[in-house]
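Hello again, I could really use a second opinion on something today. Take your time with it, there's no hurry, and the full record follows here:

___
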Amino acid sequence: MNREAKGWSEVAVSNRESWTMHEVARRWVGIGMAVFGVFAAAICSAVPPEQRVAVLEFHDAADLKAREIGYLTNIVRDIARESLPASQFVVLTGENITELLPPGRNLADCVGDCAVQTGRLLQVNWVITGEVTSIEGEYRVAISLFATDSGNLVANGRTGGRQLLDMEKPLENEARRLLAAVPVRRDSEGGGSALLPRMGWSAPEDML
């Protein structure tokens, strides 16, 4: 083999080795990206819900028993769990709230600005408060929804009845109407997402 042919042979071998190494590197990069994608998907699926909601113990202005106030509070708490997507929201239990707050803080007397401050202590995005009163032999329940970031009253509502059990269904409906004011993320067809208010909520006349 003459010197020129030998040179071309060496160049061909060198090019082939270079191409082989490039192909191996490309395949390893592909494998790495695939593995990263799997881990990223797993991490995303494990991300906790984005927003937290606290329903504070209702204020009792009707001389009810503690278990009766707890019953009315839990009606709204249960509706919050039912109405808000679990993938986006966590609704704190009464036990969660008690554990997270400083000892001695009385939530039953916490309304308005106090409710917003309590929500910030709990590190929640939304706070719902309630007050039970008795007027001329009938019970009245007023509930309010606050956004803790702005401190604004977002929505409120009222219902009532002669007996506590008479208020169960009306209070459930009022809680659903109240929670419809909370924006929920809807995934779009293009893969993006947007926060959209849900239908079904309108401001009471005293908020207009």
